[in-house]
Amino acid sequence: MVRTKVEIKRIEDKAKRHTTFTKRRQGLFKKASELCKRCNAEAAVITFSLAGNAFAFGHPSVNAVLARHNSYDANGQPCNDRGSVDDDDAESDAQKVPEDGGVVVVASNEDLNDEDDDMKVEEMSMEELEKLDSAMEEMKRKVIAQMKLLV
Amino acid sequence: MVRTKVEIKRIEDKAKRHTTFTKRRQGLFKKASELCKRCNAEAAVITFSLAGNAFAFGHPSVNAVLARHNSYDANGQPCNDRGSVDDDDAESDAQKVPEDGGVVVVASNEDLNDEDDDMKVEEMSMEELEKLDSAMEEMKRKVIAQMKLLV
DNA sequence: AGACCTATATATAAACA
DNA sequence: TTGTTTATATATAGGTC
């Protein structure tokens, strides 16, 4: 796109490829940021380099956007892969988190309070919270996998 | 950026904002697509317009990237929000999802099997799965909020 | 709403520090 | 690696249809 028009195909030279990845990733994050600011939108960008490194941008936060996306997904709005656009249906009068109250999810994991599997989040240590968080990620994957089987 | 230099701030006019959102979203997806092709990378972009519409791009697929991100996240690599970069540590010789087995997260929600709060995912109906999924989203937010308090 | 236009702002490949 | 520099390709604001 520049000194000479380049074809959009895989760069073979490893060093060059990584340099381009870094530059373009920065550009991509900047574009995402501008989109959020200018349009008061929410967006998340997640990238993995070929080397396996992860980079993410999110506004208001990566997790916030992913959670919202998950809830949309679960509610039926599909997400195209591969450069195509998504829904864009009618009004879509916003998404509300169910109702915030009364949810008492507890975790019983071999590594996590075997005897007392009903601790409240407010009473957990950081270590316990992190374990619960990981357990939930795993559970999430299982639930989604199971849902797909039933659809 | 164009006929005249524009400030990167919120566009007040609703129609204009939406037009810009559409154009910039298309540009963002294109950039993401080019990054993937040129650098053989994986990337996902998720956006929500102010109106609440969801749009997503992913290579090789939105879900593939999100799943990979989840596993990274659970394994400790943090994800900055707000336009900043992520890890980029040493070799990062790939990521494996912990080990899939032994996790027995259960949900007890007023709307979800009050009497039996220890159902296995494999035995749940679609409706129950969706409720559990929503409950987990909510729990996730609470856990993260609590973590932030402790950090 | 979209599709096209066009002038200008940006992004960026290549080279080098 | 990370940051220049520079020439050129793209993206896009503001129109028009």
Summarize the structure.
The structure is a homodimer of 151-residue chains. With 151 residues, chain A is mainly α.
Describe the fold and architecture.
The structure is a homodimer of 151-residue chains. Chain A has 151 residues and is mainly α. Chain A contains three helices and two strands. Chain A has helices spanning 14-39, 62-74, 126-150, and strands at 42-48, 54-59. In chain A, strands 1-2 form a two-stranded antiparallel sheet. In chain A, strand 1 and strand 2 (54-59) form a beta hairpin. The longest helix of chain A has 26 residues, at 14-39. The first copy, chain A, is elongated, with a radius of gyration of 20 Å. The termini of chain A are far apart. The interface between A and B is large, with 110 and 111 residues. Chain B binds a DNA duplex (17 and 17 nucleotides) through residues 1-6, 15-16, 18-20, 22-24, 27, 30-31.
| Chains forming the largest contact | A-B, 110 and 111 residues
Q: State the share of residues found in helices of chain A, binned by percent.
A: 40-55%
Indicate the mean pLDDT of chain A. 70
Strand content of chain A: 5-15%
C-alpha Rg of chain A (nearest Å): 20 Å
**Global outline of chain A:** elongated
Quaternary structure classification: homodimer
Strand order of the largest sheet of chain A: 1-2
SSE arrangement of chain A, N to C:
HEEHH
Which structural class do the helices and strands of chain A define?
mainly alpha
What is the rounded distance between the termini of chain A?
Answer: 44 Å
Q: How many helices of chain A does DSSP assign?
A: 3
Biggest sheet descriptor of chain A: 2 strands, antiparallel
Low-confidence stretches of chain A: 78-116
Give the beta-strand count of chain A.
2
